[in-house]
Design a protein that fits this description.
The structure is a single chain. By secondary structure, this protein is α/β, with parallel strands linked by helices. It has one domain: Transcription Regulator spoIIAA (2-Layer Sandwich), CATH 3.30.750. Helix content is about 30%, strand content about 35%. Strand 1 and strand 2 form a beta hairpin. Helix 1 runs parallel beside helix 2. It is globular. The two termini are about 20 Å apart. InterPro entries: Anti-sigma_ant (IPR003658), STAS_dom (IPR002645), STAS_dom_sf (IPR036513).
């Protein structure tokens, strides 16, 4: 459970498992430090995420700000229907690439 992050071929891969809420804030913050190395592409895999709250949305916005706000630079993928619905209600489909 929690956050797993790795850099592979110039892409930062962040995998969130379990609850994506304030409880993983410190882990997520550590993961996005890898984006400070000048990466231009980030993938956030939510396949294992069964819950997301407003603090998770805030963490994603901080990540977006770190890389300059480019919609195509961050791909959020594999979100379950319930999690994807939260992202769409918050209009994150206009801020990120949802796959």
């Amino acid at each position: 459970m929690g956050i797993d992050a790795r850099v592979d071929s110039g892409v930062l891969h962040i995998k969130v498992s379990g609850k994506f809420d304030f409880g993983v804030h410190n882990e997520f913050r550590e993961a996005i430090k890898l984006a400070e190395t000048g990466l231009k592409q980030i993938e956030v895999d939510l396949a294992g995420t069964d819950y997301m709250d407003s603090s998770a949305l805030g963490m994603l916005l901080v990540l977006r700000d770190k890389i300059g706000g480019d919609k195509t630079a961050i791909r959020i993928k594999n979100a379950r229907a319930e999690v994807k619905k939260i992202l769409e209600i918050a209009n994150f489909d206009k801020l990120f690439s949802l796959l």
